[in-house]
Amino acid sequence: MKGSLIILSFFGIGLLGGYFDLFPNWLLNDDLTTYALYVLMLLVGISIGSDKGAFSVLRKMNFKVVLVPLTVIFGSLAGTAVVALFLNDITIQQAMAVGSGFGYYSLSSIFISKISGQELGVIALLSNIFREIFTLLAVPLLVRFFGKLAGIASGGATSMDTTLPVIVKFTGKDYGIIAIFSGIILTVLVPVLVTLILEF
Fold first, then answer.
1. How far is CA 181 from CA 53, 107, 148, in A?
2. Is 44 exposed, middle or buried (0-12, 13-18, 19+ CB in 10 A)?
3. Is 0.85 topped by the overall pTM?
4. pLDDT by residue (tens digit) across 171-181?
């Protein structure tokens, strides 16, 4: 949770600094966002590629484990589509794009900002940060009332890293392996799904 609060604090500082014109104009250059995206994609690739244990786990897994990330994808997209029906200022397509961040706020918000503008990018950032914070706080209750996979589903892409410790604590190491697998799949699919949803 500490990491999420730090990210949220930096976002707040940037928001206030931009509103009160406290930063130099060169920071407003859109190319900086693009370069940040390239760096993020590189780091994501390095993170996944260097995790040899994760790849060995995948080889041992039963095919049914694929249903976990698929269910998260379906649930997230269907849920955001339903919510969009009650909102006037956001379309179903935009809501589903936000939902397809699966908690990966940094990467999804940059993609969405580049394709659909800063306003939707901010919505994606905050929505996915809230998803991560909710998971960190609610996993014990989710596991108790909905089963061990509920915590993994709530964590989405973050189940492979930031929410993994709390998931393992309340579900066990075996479910931790499933969480890593699901998180990796969702992390890889975030840029693909966001782009497909917004551009087609």
1. 11, 19, 15
2. middle
3. no
4. 887 788 888 88
